[in-house]
Design brief:
This protein is α/β, with parallel strands linked by helices and 573 residues long. The chain has 20 helices and 18 strands. It has three domains: 163 residues, Rossmann fold; 140 residues, Alpha-Beta Complex (Hect, E3 ligase catalytic domain fold), CATH 3.90.1750; 229 residues, no CATH class.
Length: 573
């Protein structure tokens, strides 16, 4: 194009490269050569613009702007905003880009700058590869091609977004770690065998993680653990990342040095990744144009068991989750919980028992009472029990339990494991069949409710209430189905039943004192009927009964403790 304008333009060159622009080649399976990489790089864009300006005596580049790693769908980019700021200040009056897509890929926003903002500010705009210069006379083809190219650039972003998301889903389902940073306790390492990123143990941080789980079992509160870590100078996850050289930034940092908090501790001790299960796909973008992320339902998360080495076993992890779900309280000024906190339950109202103290003739007496009775004496009986009597009763029961487990440990190696394995597998399958049948019935009920509503047999309010209840039950059945299918898959992959919990309990064989860790490891719940009647539900009650039932049905195996002892584990009168 030939122009008669003698004006000299102060230009700004703008270059942009998003992660998707380069990643799209790997999504297609291409192996980018150095030349193909260079053609899409920030450096080559700048060089192309410089060469273009060499033959344009009316243009002088005064500044170069760039956004490396920023999407073209969002115009909140530092380089782009700096360029707009210089336009407002009058420093530049010309913008040069390699092509329209470098300016942006949202066709509406890009068109706004090209058609409205730049002309209003009298800014000359040049797109080299599109052979477009706003200073020249507008060609008829430009009126058609400019919007069309911007629309194609927008569509390209949508297409790449879909491909990248699908590619990540495949990698995550294969157990590949796709996150930018490994969680505290692990390091991200390239695995040559599998040609992907895997999580590997961080020896230092993993020891801290394991200690947190142990402290939960010992009765420490989340805040107590955080205080302990801060007092002993243990670096928080953010500070540890900085210490190890990770380029990690966050908007949530408030203090000059990030410290441990109860929230940070809870985030760790509730993360299933520490059992060796890789959990990804918890959030997703609303769409390819919006950076906002939404939390996905748990049943839609991508879980891959045994994807990496575990820091804690699943038994300990599940135990800690059970403890955290309970309403547990600390004593005044104490960092850890009372031994029986959250374990005692009223059999009538289902509420937790609370610890109380009384002083009588210079002596302090400790007892537990129903929390409902404490608030309102007319709603429930006290179910009062003295703490010392409680300790003795529970201690006696656990002694029988440990005695029996010690015998089982000696017998189990002689037992035909496949028989127990088959019984366990069949039991889960039967449970799954019941859940699936219940789900089908509820789906059928939904159709019946709709037909009854249409025929006028049901009022609208009744229909909505019943439909909501039915939908809730279906969702719960779906969650149970996923859980049971996971148990079947895990059991089939192992090919055997894990009885490591027996070893965990026998570690307390010589314990003289009922401490917090001993109690929560062995007991799930204690129902207090009265001062002389307790019902104890063991943590592995089903597995325990399963083994005893098998042994009792096989006369060749004799358990010295017998049925009487087994009953006494459940009841103390």
């Amino acid at each position: 194009m030939q122009y008669t304008n003698n004006r000299i333009y102060s230009a700004g060159s703008y270059a942009r490269l998003s992660k998707d622009d380069f990643h799209s080649m790997s999504v297609r399976g291409d192996q980018p050569s150095p030349n193909s990489y260079e053609s899409n790089s920030i450096t080559s864009q700048k060089e192309l613009i410089r060469q273009y300006v060499e033959n344009k005596p009316d243009i002088h580049i005064v500044n170069e702007y760039e956004d490396d790693g920023y999407t073209g769908l969002n115009f909140e980019r530092p380089g782009f905003k700096a360029m707009l700021d210089d336009i407002q200040k009058g420093i530049i009056n010309c913008v040069i880009v390699k092509d329209f897509s470098r300016l942006g890929r949202d066709h509406i926003e890009t068109g706004k700058y090209l058609k409205k903002m730049f002309p209003r500010l009298n800014i000359r705009f040049v797109s080299i590869n599109d052979d477009y210069d706003s200073l020249g006379q507008m060609r008829q083809s430009d009126n058609i091609m400019m919007p069309f190219k911007n629309l194609m650039n927008d569509n390209y972003s949508r297409d790449i977004s879909v491909k990248v998301r699908s590619h990540l889903e495949v990698k995550q389902k294969n157990g590949e770690f796709t996150g930018a940073f490994a969680v505290y306790g692990y390091k991200k390492e390239w695995n040559e065998k599998y040609r992907c990123n895997k999580l590997v143990i961080d020896e230092y941080a993993s020891a801290i993680v394991y200690e947190m789980f142990i402290m939960i079992l010992q009765g420490y509160s989340l805040q107590g653990i955080a205080a302990y870590l801060n007092e002993h100078g243990i670096l928080s996850p953010l500070e540890y990342k900085k210490h190890t050289g990770s380029r990690f930034n966050t908007e949530f940092k408030v203090n000059a040095k990030a410290r441990w908090t109860a929230v940070a501790v809870r985030r760790i001790v509730t993360n299933e990744v520490y059992t060796g299960t890789l959990v990804q796909g918890k959030v997703e973008k609303t769409n390819y144009k919006v950076s906002d992320r939404i939390q996905k339902p748990k049943e839609e998360w991508r879980r891959v068991p045994n994807a990496h080495e575990a820091i804690v076993d699943k038994e300990m992890f599940n135990l800690v989750q059970n403890i955290l779900e309970k309403d547990t309280r600390r004593g005044p000024g104490k960092k850890n919980l009372y031994p029986f906190s959250g374990l005692l339950q009223c059999p009538d109202c289902g509420q937790m028992m609370v610890r109380k103290t009384e002083k009588h003739k210079g002596k302090i007496y400790v007892y537990y009472v129903c929390s409902t009775h404490k608030r309102d004496c007319n709603k429930c009986s006290s179910h009062r029990i003295n703490e010392e009597k409680l300790k003795k009763s529970v201690g006696d029961i656990l002694k029988y339990h440990v005695r029996l487990l010690k015998e089982l440990k000696e017998i189990l190696p002689k037992v035909e494991k496949h028989s127990l394995f088959g019984k366990r597998l069949k039991k889960i399958h039967n449970h799954l069949d019941i859940v699936e049948k219940d789900k089908e019935e509820k789906n059928g009920l939904k159709l019946t409710l709709f037909e009854d509503y249409k025929k006028g047999f049901l009022e609208e309010s009744d229909y909505k209430d019943m439909l909501q209840s039915c939908t809730k039950q279906i969702k719960e059945a779906e969650r149970q189905k996923i859980r049971l299918e996971g148990q079947i898959k895990e059991l089939q992959e192992k090919g055997d039943i894990d009885y490591s919990w027996i070893e965990n309990i026998l570690e307390f064989e010589d314990e003289k004192i009922l401490d917090r860790q001993y109690l929560v490891t062995t007991i799930k719940q204690i129902q207090v009927f009265s001062s002389c009647c307790l019902k104890i539900e063991l943590r592995q009650q089903d597995e325990f009964d399963e083994i005893l039932e098998y042994l009792e049905n096989n006369k060749e195996y004799k358990v010295a403790a017998g049925n009487e002892e087994r009953r006494r584990i459940n009841w103390q009168e």
